[in-house]
Amino acid sequence: MHDDLINAAMEARDKAYCRYSGFSVGAAIFDDRGRVHVGCNVENAAYNLGNCAEAAAIAAMVQDGGKRIARIAVVGGHADVVSCTPCGGCRQRINEFGDEKTVVIAIDDSNEWREYSIAELLPASFHLDIT
Ligand code: THU
Fold it and tell me: Ligand 1 centroid vs 111 CA: distance in angstroms?
């Protein structure tokens, strides 16, 4: 069902720059217009400057004019793919561009995928209502 998006995330994962953790992550977004945007994690010798795959994919979506995340697939692992749900910070990032219909797809150890809503991953989330 989500094969195309998962494959796009897998391909993005192949590009990860993760020489410090050895944990490569790829993310692929299907946006509100049906366009796909990908990203991988990019680490740095100054560890706290590393970026998550989801952040890169969201930046690519915004740059391309995408407004909302319809679906996002995240795949990660040291060698084989293991269960990789988005980190806390990336849940907040996804929430910024997500809504109640947004589907977060994580791949588990047996290569099965599992779907989550962003509300499930980030209950009682912080919103800033501006006028
Ligand atoms: N990582 C991501 O790219 N996304 C996540 O949601 C979890 C963690 C990256 C950050 C770091 O480069 C590596 O995985 C190990 O934490």
Answer: 18
